[in-house]
Amino acid sequence: MNARTRTLIAAALVLGIASGPAVAHAAPAPAPAPAPVSSTRVAPEIPTPPDAAALEKAITGLGPEHRDATAALVRVGGRSGTWQGSSGVADVRTGREALEQGRFRAGSVTKTFTSAVVLQLAAEGSVDLDRPVQEYLPGLLPATFKPVSVRQLLNYTSGIQPADGPGDSFAEAYAHRFDVEDPRALIANAVAKGPEFDPGTRQHYLNIDYTILGVLIEKVTGTSYEKALATRIFKPLGLRHTSLPGPGQTRIPGPHNRGYQAVPQADGGRTLVDVTEWGSSREWAAGDLISTTADLERFTTALFAGRLVPKAQLEEMFTVPAVADFTTGAPAELTAGMKRFVLPDGTVAWGKTGGRHGYNTAIGGTRDLSRTLVYSVNSTDAKGQDMNKVAFDIVMAAFAR
Question: What value, to the nearest 5°, has the Cα angle with vertex 239 and ends 83 and 95?
Fold first, then answer.
């Protein structure tokens, strides 16, 4: 498959990513679990076990000399079988083998957690998705804004512009990596620009919607955003290796694989800059999460199965608004905290990707849970415009029939 074809397919998926010592290994794929006994037997969307050979090939050879990634952690699950694998190095200086249970920055996968809490509050009657956020948070938006519903924040149709950042280049972001940002200050900066479009008329994927939802969670629950997620998701699901760092915390707690950004040099070569330590207060409720593939797999399964968000509210995560994308003009694809993507063979999957410097992450699966996927790829250009080739190969192998 040539690069252009891969780029076109990756755009449709939007899943967003001699070498040193590398290891790839898999758990034997069990036979498909028997279908539940019922009067109406529904065939699984993906009936075959994961393709172990294709998955191993997708993550083979990772390390400091690899063009796209220094490590990868992968878990494929579901009713049709399981597979686990890891490859690459935990640290390019020592060549230590990648830690399969290592923690990593999950980036915008955080939005799925934030959305789940808001939908829980909706199920409890504490939040009305159709009610303007201005009524919950008086004074947050100036009078120049028309009513913006909670649902429009969840599905990125609010029309609120992004807050100003340190710049678009890696050098600018790196220089400000330890800055501590206040969520309300970011919101004030964003709304001072006025609306980008009328609420509910376009979809524009931006962090600012989820920053506001983080403030909403705090107002409605009377506790911090971090405590709300710990109480409502981390503890009930037993996500013992998942956390949200405090405003000044720049390190990843516990064992982890270090992240790197490839920086081009004048001689045509590149230098791998260690980006493991990085503040994340700017991302907060939109991208602050630290987790493991095992914890994210558990979260994904519980979410899709309706054990975390009641069925009526869960539909918000599988409902795409009938509007156009603000940037491309194409039909919207994002939902409340997730995204619909269609594979080349027509398989429909749902999930969320995340990108923080040094780390590309994804969670997702078919709605019937016949196939789930969680990966963390230590991409050397995690914020790049194109999908990471290793991540692309993982997705294609994981969902192969």
Answer: 55
